[in-house]
Amino acid sequence: MFADYQKQVLLTYHEKKTANRLSPNLVHTTPGRLREECMAVFTARYDHHHDEKILRQFFGHREDAAAYLRAITNLKAEKFKPLDNFLKGGTSVTQEKNIELLAWLIDFSPRPYAWDRSYAELERAHHPEAGQMNLPGRILEEGKWEKAKEGPAVMTTPGVPAQTKNQLPGHHAAETHDQAVLRPFPIKTARNSRLRNTAVLMLLLCASGGGIFWAWNAKKSKEQCMCWAGDHYRSISCREKLSGSDIFGMDSLQMAHFKKITRPDTLSQRALGHVWYSKIDGAVEFYTAGGFHPVHRERKLKPLTIYILNKYASHAVPVTVAKN
């Protein structure tokens, strides 16, 4: 059921948040920060096979990765407000597409939701202790708990008279009332022991492997940053200090495709849809990809128009739009 899937996504989100394993954009959310996180996650680990369905559900169908990045960049921040309200507790329900987007942002696995997958089983696999809690009134395989009218709780088995705590095998008379704990009769088999040992080993391997990967990824992310070099981004150590230049987290797509066009006179009508521009204090600059201005980060680049092309690409042949 999708409700089980949603429960697991939210549980993972809060676990990672508590462990300080989330981006600040996901810890202190706003609609704008959620959009920024979408851009960062997309450029860092977009996987068409696993993620295209989720992005199509939220941003609409796009032809390729570059088109999805443009869709994320150009989407109004208010579209992320329902997810922001949901994460802040402003509402207890939200659309499925918001849960799927959250799963993508926190790298939840397995995703997206599949109707034929049991997420209740996934919950027990992630939290095996949930099925072993000794709670009053919980039915066990070989017996059930019940409370005595006075004194500590005891366990009864069908057909066996109720016994006090001190009469149960394995209990010591020295235990006080305040120290009493509920214990089931020991039921041990070789098969159960092997399964338990295997499960513990698998959990330890997963935990250690995840910890190693997280530490390696964190170290790698600290060592890989980039800065604006006048007409392109260049890689730089995150520990390096620059005067008069900001340092950003590594963005492989921006590194590869975002450049300033220094010869606007070479632009033609073919640049429409492939070039973006900014106009600051009357000066127009052209770039090969969308997003935000590399220096004035508060300014968003706009798609090139025929008017801007004709007016500011001074040596370009005037372009007109054919009328029917």
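(ticket continues) Second input and output from the same batch:
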Amino acid sequence: MTLTFHRTLQPLSRLRHKVSAAFWLQSLACAVVAWSVMHGGITIAPPGAPPDGQSPPVAPDTIAPPGAFAPPAPDGASAPTAVAPSSAGAPGAPAPPSAIAVPAATGTLGATPGARSASAPVQLSVVPTLAEARLALSTIDVTVTRNDTLDRIFRRLKLNLADLATLRGVPGLHAMLDSLRPGERLRFKHHDGEFLGLERRLNESHTLKVSRDPTGLKADVLQDTLETRSRTVRGVIDHSLFEAVEAAGAREQIAVALADIFGWDIDFALDVRSGDAFVVTWDEIWRDGTYLKDGPIQAAAFVNQGRAFRAVRYTDPQGATRYYTPDGTSLQRDFLRTPVEFTRVSSHFTSARWHPLLHRIRAHQGVDYAAPIGTPVRAAGDGRIRFAGRRGGYGNVVEIEHTRSIVTVYGHLSRFAHGTRVGEHVTQGAVIAYVGMTGLATGPHLHYEYRVNGVFRNPQTVMLPGAGPVDARWREDFLARCAPLLASLDYPPGAMLVSR
């Protein structure tokens, strides 16, 4: 009897355990399904859903990019499965870690009897890849201060110094990074103290870019695209050339360049008058929509006391660049009209002048240009130094022999420039000495003489030899290139240069 009873209870006990296990499993499954429904991770399949294991057709516009969520399905339609494109762009390839689509748990809770639920995508949050992490990197612009070094900047930004050592080990970078200029800006990229990149502008058209890839640090020098814009302005002088040029909308350096171009024919310190007029066309250099600097003057016109002068810039096929008149005559002369930047002419060329120290009348066979002590004195033209030293009333003096017939003399110098000695060849514009007041001088100035075959000539009025016309081989090219430049001098169209 007892044996029979126990044999009867054993099946009932096993059944009770099975029912209990099924109850808890069902409860757990319901909880999971409910949580998924609340969080949008599962969609209850409507009638007509495809059988398990089959996916509905995916239209091209339903292919989700990496990391994208599948859009919710409209009422009565099955939810499309997010398919990540492969690296080659083909649909159906495995999704990247940041956009993994996996089927959700299935169930029939609340479903129409006889219908099967569809597989719905569930987006899993995973650790981002290195490329994604770099999207969140920090970018910092650093202005270099005096005595700044990369080491100091790395420490200031709390970057890993081991990365600095690696950076300096990249071939060719040492010279580009260790010569920092106060005021320049460096752009650093980093993430949690890890150095990821650096940008430094080397000059107006080149940028150094250091970046990190899976193989380590690499450096590239990128060439920026510069844009050239042509500008033309015109003006009339009231007081000075500089004021008139700035009033016309140009910068000071344009006035300086304009005076240099016409400086062989016009003495801008003495000859310019109120009512003189100008037109100037030049290039502006821009980068990424930002103005960088003024380029060279391409064409200019100047009316001085009723006399009109015009100039165009021309570079011949051999690369030589000069300014010419419209007929191809070079504006450049073999000699500078004035070899020093001066404040005023303290004594002119004359056959009879009362000498302030000797107290008697004597010829003044040169021009005295007053200027501060130490102002550079330049060679008026190419030549050979035939004397450099002290000589009587001249004080410290330099004599340059340019041709067999022409000699220039520079007196009352404070000191000589390095390399100024007898026998040395100099080029036009080279600094040979500095203004002083040695010898018979009452104040700092340069005494300048121009001699032709031993005869003293007035440096301010003597006819200076020219540099020659455009080579006959390039004349047609010159005329073709200069025509539009000369046309720009009539800006606005039809306007004429006149003196007031």
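Agent notes: The longest helix spans residues 2-38. The chain has a mean pLDDT of 76. Closing as not reproducible unless the customer responds.
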